[in-house]
Amino acid sequence: MPASPSSSAQAAREAVAHRLRDLRKEAGLTVVQLAAACSWHYSKTSRIENALTGPSTNDIRRWCAAAHAPDQAQDLVVQSINAESMYRQWRDQVRAGLRHIQESRVKAFRETECHRLYSAGLVPGLLQTEGYALAVLGIAASVHGLPVDDSAVAARARIERSRIVHEQGHRFVVVIEEPVLHYRIADPDAMAAQLGYLLTAGALPAVSLGIVPMAARRTHWPEETFHIYDDRLVSVELVSAEVSVTQPGEITQYLETFERLRGMAVYGAEARALILKAIEVLH
């Protein structure tokens, strides 16, 4: 099992916090003395050192100056910025609109040769129909309380992005849990269209579609939705955030987990039978 999906981000935050704490101790300063030198309350120093509060660029520069280590500031600023960029809150992402999120990922998709996708809750975006995508993004707009619901244009942008499955130079290995076929995300007609498209998409030369049957003897438990871009990046979707995992060791763990999940899935005629069964119970 991979470490917590946010472990890379949290570890990066803690590395900055621990280095700042070490600088304070090396300078012979107490928490209170460091705070006084930086002109803030000592509780802020404690929160930063315990990785409860991320330091701003100015905080880091003042801290390093107080600890007589101004030469350490720039590296720590860069390290802190990288740590915070690993953990991006959904609320911040959706502020620019759902369409923006779809379009912002086109470059990463096009630069990836082998896409590995696992989902226990939804049909992955790259295999969604417009009606299903509209329902999914409509739920997202409601959950995040967007002032402007742009789910319709976002759904069209998602479908446009999904055309990559028909382009040469890319391979898609997709594993979903069987309940995904039965979750009523959209109305019956849209669900029928989506399930029908899975039959078509699963037959595409560049797509390997595996479905883990509910009756399968599990050798690994269901995981959060994650997308592996070649062997360089893993994107994990949590309730509150999207976490980007870039540490080679953790990427290896996700690759190994994906292979275990893929090993439980059925393919070809068996997968089509599960999809057809889901279509039959729609009405």
UniProtKB/TrEMBL annotation:
PROSITE patterns: HTH_CROC1. It holds the Pfam family HTH_31. InterPro entries: Cro/C1-type_HTH, DUF5753, Lambda_DNA-bd_dom_sf. It comes from the Bacteria. Residues 20-62 form the HTH cro/C1-type domain. One of its GO terms (molecular function) is DNA binding. This is Transcriptional regulator. It comes from Streptomyces albiflavescens.
